[in-house]
């Protein structure tokens, strides 16, 4: 019973983070399942089965808060489902020991870009409103879906920073669209796991409690992402991407850093992350104050012009 309660809490926290930042449900949940001895395929299958429900609830919640661009959902979700089915089917025979560090380097580069861009300058507006093309979203979805199924998580960490970096749609719509399209990915991955390993290694009680925690958290997360300013949200997302992928690289066979080195790296990143979020919050407040002053000045000018006309 204690394990089930813990899994329910993990599902709640994981979905709260995922629905707010567009990533981390699969990574968080799969990490716990692996830590208690579940094999990789069964852990990923359990998480993806739970995600069928959590992503549906999250998608509905984001839709109600107008956080979704449905064109993005279709263009990235269908290729993502194809990649997820392929990744799930071949997981038991696929080694990701080399692929994971390579992908982490790519994600880390994107994370640094998002982190610096949003912290220093706020929301990129040069491309805002321009369409995201299929030739960009389709390969992205295919890769993200494959990584998500083979690694037990990765749809958000691959898709969210790549779309955020384009600066073409607001962060809240990036997150809402990624969460909504993940329903297709979870459905396809689950089908692939049933084909690949069957259902005998899946504990459906674990699926149920992960699902319950996620469903409870979904509307809360959708509300949060609508009310967190884009500049602060970008700093938060960038920090998550950097911390997650530095951790992967330090623990990989390529580096295999000692525990004390890892601890120092995490402390430094955490310090920079907190400082960046604080700076983004200060700049956001300053921008809002300037906008208020400009609005008052514009209203005064308009009244002055009116008075000139009537006099």
What does it look like?
- The chain is mainly alpha-helical and 311 residues long.
- It has one domain (2-310).
- 82% of the residues lie in helices and 0% in strands.
- It contains 11 helices and no strands.
- It has helices spanning 2-21, 25-35, 40-64, 70-90, 99-121, 134-151, 155-166, 171-197, 204-227, 230-251, 259-310.
- Helix 2 (25-35) packs antiparallel against helix 3, helix 5 packs parallel to helix 7 and helix 5 (99-121) packs antiparallel against helix 10.
- It is globular.
Summarize the structure.
With 311 residues, the chain is mostly helical. The chain has helices at 2-21, 25-35, 40-64, 70-90, 99-121, 134-151, 155-166, 171-197, 204-227, 230-251, 259-310.
Helix amount? over 70%
Structural class: mainly alpha
Helix count? 11
**What is the number of independent domains?**
1
Average of pLDDT: 76
Report the major sheet: none
List SSEs in N-to-C order.
HHHHHHHHHHH
Segments where pLDDT lies below 50 for 5+ residues? none
Q: Tell me the fraction of residues in β-strands, as a range.
A: under 5%
Radius of gyration: 21 Å
Number of strands: 0
What global shape is seen?
A: globular
N→C terminal distance:
80 Å
Membrane topology: Multi-pass membrane protein
Subcellular location: Cell membrane; Membrane
InterPro entries: TM_pro_TauE-like (IPR002781), TSUP/Inactive_protease-like (IPR051598)
Main location: membrane
């Amino acid at each position: 019973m204690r394990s089930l309660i813990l899994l329910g809490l993990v599902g709640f926290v994981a979905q709260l983070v995922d629905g707010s930042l567009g990533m981390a449900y699969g990574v968080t949940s799969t990490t716990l399942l692996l830590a208690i001895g579940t094999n990789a395929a069964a852990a990923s299958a359990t998480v993806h089965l739970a995600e069928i429900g959590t992503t549906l609830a999250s998608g509905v919640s984001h839709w109600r808060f107008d956080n979704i661009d449905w064109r993005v959902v279709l263009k990235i979700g269908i290729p993502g489902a194809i990649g997820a089915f392929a990744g799930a089917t071949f997981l038991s025979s696929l080694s990701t020991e080399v692929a994971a560090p390579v992908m982490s380097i790519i994600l880390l580069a994107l994370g640094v870009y998002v982190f610096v861009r949003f912290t220093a300058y706020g929301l990129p507006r040069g491309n805002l409103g321009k369409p995201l093309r299929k030739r960009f979203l389709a390969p992205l979805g295919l890769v993200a879906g494959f990584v998500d199924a083979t690694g037990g998580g990765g749809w958000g960490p691959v898709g969210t920073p790549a779309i955020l970096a384009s600066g073409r749609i607001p962060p809240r719509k990036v997150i809402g669209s990624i969460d909504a399209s993940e329903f297709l990915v979870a459905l396809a991955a689950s089908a692939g796991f049933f084909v690949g390993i069957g259902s005998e290694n899946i504990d459906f009680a674990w699926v149920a409690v992960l699902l319950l925690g996620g469903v409870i958290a979904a509307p809360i997360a959708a509300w949060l992402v609508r009310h967190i300013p884009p500049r602060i949200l970008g700093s938060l997302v960038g920090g998550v991407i950097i911390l997650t992928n530095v951790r992967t690289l330090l623990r990989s066979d390529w580096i295999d850093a000692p525990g004390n080195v890892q601890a120092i790296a995490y402390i430094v990143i955490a310090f920079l992350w907190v400082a960046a979020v604080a700076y983004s919050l200060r700049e956001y407040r300053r921008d809002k104050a300037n906008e208020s002053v400009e609005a008052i000045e514009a209203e005064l000018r308009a009244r002055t012009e009116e008075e000139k006309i009537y006099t």
